[in-house]
Amino acid sequence: MKVLAISSNIGDTSALLADEAAEVDDLVRRGIALQVLVKADWSGAALLLEVPDLETARATVVALPIAAHGLTRFELTPVVEVPTPGSGDAGRAAEPRGHAG
Question: What's the domain range around 51?
C-alpha cells in the first residue's frame, strides 16, 4: 500500500540532518520511500512510502533520527493512484467517500 507521511518539526533538527538524510536515502534504495520532498520552509517533509500496512509505515517513520529524538511528528494517510483513462486500472482506485455513485 502507499502511505503519504507528512512531518511537522517541533524542535531544532539541524544537528540530525546528515543522519536523517542517510536513513532516508537507505529507504529510497530499498524501494520503501518512493518520493521524498522537504517543505519549502524546512519545517518538515513529505514521504511517499510503499509498505505492507499502516503499522509498518508508522514504524518506518518513527525510527528516523529526527522522529526518534522527538523533534518531529508524522501524519500518515493511506493514498491510491488515480487511474488515467485507458490505463486499464479504472477499477483499482478506491471510490471517494461520500460518492453517490
Answer: 2-79
